[in-house]
Amino acid sequence: MRLAWRPASLRVRLMGLLAVPLLLVLAVSVVADYRTAVSLTDATFDRALLGTAMALASRLESDDDDGPLELDLPPAAEAILRGEETDAVRYAVVDSERHLIAGDPDLLSSDLRPPPGTPGYRDARLGDLSMRVVAVTHESHKLKATVLVAETTHKRDQATARILQTVIGSNLLLIATALGLVYFGVRLGLRPLDELGRQIDQRGAEDFRPVPTAAIPAEARPLAAALNRLLTRLEAAGQAQQSFLSAAAHQLRTPLAGLQTQLDLANQDLPAEVRPRLTRLRDSVARLNHFVRQMLALARSSPEAAAAMSFQTMDLSDLLEDCASDFLDGALARGLELAFEPAPAPVTGAPWLLREMLANLVDNAIAHGPPGSLVVIRCGTDDTEAWIEVEDAGPGIPLAEAERLFEPFYRPRGSPPGGSGLGLAIVREVAERHQGRVAFHPGPEGRGARVRVVFPSVTKSACQDSEG
């Protein structure tokens, strides 16, 4: 199975682009610091070794001008010279004929013979020992001799190791500090983008306001501008869809209403034997009209269409008063009684959507309520929430099936004929468009049903300001 490649985040990319050069700088810095420190250390040890050679050269003397050179080195001084605890020291005094005057014959193999006044240095191996050799040429009258002093490199190696540890440790600390500062700097620098993402994520589906660009870094402003253009196009598309649905609703309702009117008129003039057929046809047209109205309402309440709607602050109690007369004919035809219990319940929403939601709740209650029963329509507020509910005295429904009631086209067993199964689906769509929720509850004493829709409430002052 091929794994899809996912590009690294901007934070990871910036960290990588900054970390690689910093690590390269670390490597160069370690090498440069190490070489400098080792060079200074070697120079210090070389000066100490040269001091020993110069001290030995100062002990060369001759009995007369033409006599051989001799090294006047007391045994105690030689013991001090050779008594170094860490490094072994060897020395040799060689005349111009390469004859050993004093010291260790092992150094005769060295051909280091610098000119007078200029010391010479060389790394050499004497047996299994790695040594550093310095040579000084001494002239006295007509006689010339070379003083060779060799010292093992244990102290030099130890000093080099300490230098390497110190250099690497200090540079690692420096680079870790720099990377830490870079990490927090990148996080701080990208915080406006994180805030932009959070603001966009918190927006509802109906919010097409432009993204504010004042606090956005200049590098991200082209992205924000492109996003604003996309929001504008989406809003225009939603408005176009809403206009189409409104026109379609008008164009479909008009001929269906005219057809039903003509059927009602024809029913009066036709013979009695054909009237039952015409009545069934008229009922079918009425169901078709109701079904088309609900289908269009469901489409207009979808996120794609509802996103372009303008919401306003309104009171649910006003909605109950405005729609009361619309429900009376249906209730009287079924022999039901309607009761309204309005209370202040300010919300922010689309008035026609909330009216459609209420119509479907009441139609559903009227369809399921037995003749002579009561349908109660009420609204109010609880703490920070506003609600509207419709209660009927119908047969009710088991709570196990309550959630399925809000699925499109679902009709529980025993439902009266003529329904489409879209009423409660429309109710839930409208509730979701208003950041609300809908719940089904049993009626009083377990009889009937009570459907409550809860919305985020707004203050009464905001409602008055909107009406003003």
SSE blueprint:
Layout: H1 10-57, E1 60-62, E2 69-71, H2 75-82, E3 89-95, E4 100-103, E5 120-126, E6 129-140, E7 143-152, H3 154-189, H4 191-201, H5 221-269, H6 275-300, H7 303-306, E8 312-315, H8 316-334, E9 337-341, E10 346-349, H9 351-368, E11 374-382, E12 385-392, H10 423-433, E13 437-442, E14 449-456, H11 460-467
Parallel strand pairs: 9-11
Antiparallel strand pairs: 1-2, 3-4, 3-7, 5-6, 6-7, 8-10, 11-12, 12-14, 13-14
Oligomer: single chain
Number of DSSP strands?
A: 14
According to CATH, what is the class of the largest domain? Answer: Alpha Beta
Percentage of helical residues? 40-55%
CATH topology of the largest domain, anyone?
Answer: Heat Shock Protein 90
Q: Output mean pLDDT.
A: 77
CATH superfamily of the largest domain: Histidine kinase-like ATPase, C-terminal domain
Q: Could you explain the architecture of this structure?
A:
- This protein is of the alpha+beta class.
- The chain folds into three domains: 10-160, Beta-Lactamase (2-Layer Sandwich); 207-308, Helix Hairpins; 310-468, 2-Layer Sandwich (Heat Shock Protein 90), CATH 3.30.565.
- The chain contains eleven helices and 14 strands.
- It has helices at 10-57, 75-82, 154-189, 191-201, 221-269, 275-300, 303-306, 316-334, 351-368, 423-433, 460-467, and strands at 60-62, 69-71, 89-95, 100-103, 120-126, 129-140, 143-152, 312-315, 337-341, 346-349, 374-382, 385-392, 437-442, 449-456.
- The strands form four sheets. The protein has a five-stranded antiparallel β-sheet with strand order 4-3-7-6-5. The chain has a five-stranded mixed β-sheet with strand order 9-11-12-14-13.
- Helix 1 runs antiparallel to helix 3.
- The protein is rod-shaped, with a radius of gyration of 51 Å.
- The two termini are 64 Å apart.
- Mean pLDDT is 77; it is low at 460-468.
